[in-house]
Design brief:
globular; Glutamine Phosphoribosylpyrophosphate, subunit 1, domain 1; alpha+beta; 22 helices; 581 residues; 6-stranded antiparallel β-sheet; Rossmann fold; 17 strands
């Protein structure tokens, strides 16, 4: 989905308008819709619907029951309060959408991005316009934007593993985050939230695991059914793990759905036997590909279209496979189970027991969950209980953001992560719930940035609003019930998943695939980082880089993974540096 919206609310239309439209036509962008003070340019791949005389929906808007919303019956009169529109969207609808609603007399424009973040949305001010766009490619091609890398943001991205905020890696370009509304009026810009996890937590939680499982099943079925129903051809990334298997079963028997499995040469990353069972149960043809670490190129630059680092270098061969399969079957969307671990609160910590202690006190329920944590992790009951109580005493201070600040030069090293609106209003959240929501926030960083997005959009259905709401109403301790990880998700699809998937305790891993690529490219990585733009601008600590490169590799060590992520950032920065030149 590629789009660009030129807006000029509350001010005269800039004189460059006609020239920009002519240049857009040369780049394959056409005027898809326009209003009094805005024009939508698009490449024809996205679904666009008019919303009254002065509004539109980019993407797909559904009612709560999963049926597509009749846009001719839901338009808000110009001037309807922003809060009222946001309340309606949050309570009555869901989807993958960006809604544009006009204020009275064209004095302001309001952009609402759905909580799943399915439609990308960037905002920048340029040449008399407020530009709202899916990415930076069109803005760059139309000469609307002179990019400049924000090196302080780049340092923050590395230090905190890509933690999201409104800020991006380009100066003057901000992201409208999921569940937010952007109001542009004259020279003023205001951003607020109309959907946050804290708002869902005000609702009464589920009291029984069965109730939670039924609600989750309903949410996933409606989400996947509705999103798939508007697509002509789907490629599903079927790893064989539980998260992608649930998506596959929700897509069961759907025509023109093609499953693809990527396996590594080592046994820990080869889940083909599980993927075959799921594909057979769902009724899909399955294509299998074996990945070769020699195919990873640690010097290949991404095209300059992402406003922040996103493409994962070590997964470029996976992206190539899906791009090829997508073109072969003319896919209109890629589905996957991205985010399932975070959304279904896969954890090896005692946090669920701590949360139950906070909610119910030191009674039978707490001791039951301590036993569940012990069964899940292999720890003794005494050790699990001690960890839960220790976490309770630490409270919110127990959470420390993960990342690699040691790779950043001292003068660029940030003091703390930038704020995210989904972490607001959680002052009373228990330690486990806070960890859970932080994990959910991180999911959005794994959805965009894929090369395959240039073929068709990637749909992470587990991140859909209905699913998130069901998940947030589920007490954290229910996710480890009976010592099983993601227990409520397992129970929700117990009647559909093949038994080997339902009973499975192991997880597929591609660590050895990544380590082989790393070992074969240590000297290449050193050259890329020492001779790169991050070093030239004094952003990174080359002493720390060399220390990691010289150390023997430990399979589960996070240090070398930090170095690989640093290469991702370096290549992104090199791509933009060339575009700027």
């Amino acid at each position: 989905m590629a789009y660009l919206i030129l807006t000029w609310p509350g001010r005269p239309r800039p004189g460059s308008y006609d020239a920009i439209l002519a240049k857009a036509s040369d780049q394959g962008l056409v005027v898809a819709h326009s209003g009094r003070c805005w024009t939508l340019l698009a490449d024809g791949r996205e679904r666009v619907g008019a919303l009254g005389n002065e509004g539109l929906v980019l993407g797909d808007l559904f009612r709560r029951d999963g049926h597509r919303a009749g846009l001719d019956r839901i338009g808000w009169p110009p001037g309807t309060a922003v809060e009222a529109i946001g309340r309606d969207l949050a309570r009555e609808f869901w989807g993958r959408y960006l809604v544009l609603a006009a204020g009275e007399d064209g004095g302001d424009l309001r952009f609402f991005r759905d909580p799943s973040g399915g439609v990308p949305c960037l905002h920048a001010r340029s040449d008399g316009y407020d530009v709202v766009a899916s990415d930076m490619a069109a803005s760059l091609g139309l000469g609307l934007f002179q990019p400049e890398i924000d090196w302080a943001y780049v340092a923050h991205h590395v230090a905190y593993n890509g933690a999201r905020s409104q800020r991006t890696g380009l100066v003057g370009v901000n992201e409208l985050l999921p569940g937010q509304v952007l109001v542009v009026s004259g020279q003023n810009v205001e951003i607020t939230s109309y959907w946050r996890p804290a708002d869902v937590l005000r609702h009464k939680p589920f009291s029984e695991p069965r109730q939670a499982a039924e609600a989750l099943f309903s949410a996933i079925e409606r989400t996947v059914g509705a999103l798939a129903g508007v697509e002509s051809s789907i490629v599903i990334e079927l790893s064989g793990g539980m998260d992608s298997s649930i998506i596959a079963m929700a897509l069961r028997r759907r025509a023109r759905t093609f499953a693809v499995n990527c396996a590594t040469q080592g046994p820990e990353g080869d889940e083909r036997r599980y993927a075959r069972q799921v594909a057979d149960a769902a009724g899909f043809p399955l294509t299998e590909h074996e990945l070769n670490p020699a195919d990873i190129d640690f010097t290949r630059l991404p095209a300059p279209w992402m406003a922040r680092p996103g493409r994962t270098t070590v997964l470029q061969s996976v992206d190539a496979v899906f791009g090829e399969e997508g073109r072969r079957v003319a896919a209109s969307a890629f589905f996957n189970g991205t985010g399932g671990d975070s959304i279904f609160f896969y954890t090896q910590s005692a946090a669920p027991a701590t949360d139950r202690l906070f909610a119910e006190g030191p009674g039978m329920g707490f001791f039951e969950t301590v036993g569940d944590v012990a069964d899940l992790t292999g720890a003794s009951v005494w050790r699990a209980g001690y960890a839960a109580i220790k976490l309770a005493l630490k409270g919110r201070s127990a959470y420390q953001p993960s990342g690699h600040p040691e790779l950043i030069a001292e003068r660029y090293r940030p003091d703390e992560p930038e704020p995210h609106p989904w972490l607001e209003g959680l002052e009373k959240a228990s330690p486990g719930r806070l960890r859970h929501i932080r994990g959910i926030v991180a999911v959005h960083g794994h959805v965009d940035g894929h090369d395959r997005n240039q073929v068709a959009p990637v749909i992470a259905a587990h991140a859909g609003q209905l699913v998130l709401e069901a998940v947030l109403k589920t007490p954290t301790w229910m996710w480890v019930a009976q010592g099983r990880d993601r227990a409520i998700a397992r129970e929700a699809y117990a009647g559909l998943l093949p038994r080997d998937i339902y009973n499975r305790r192991s997880k597929g891993r591609i660590n050895r695939f990544i380590t082989e690529a790393y070992e074969a490219n240590r000297s290449v990585i050193r050259t890329v980082l020492h001779d790169g733009v991050l070093a030239r601008h004094g952003v990174i600590n080359l002493t720390a880089v060399d220390k990691i490169l010289a150390a023997p590799l430990v399979l589960d060590d996070t240090a070398f993974m930090g170095l690989i992520r640093l290469v991702d950032v370096e290549l992104w920065a090199q791509g933009w540096t060339r575009a700027i030149a």
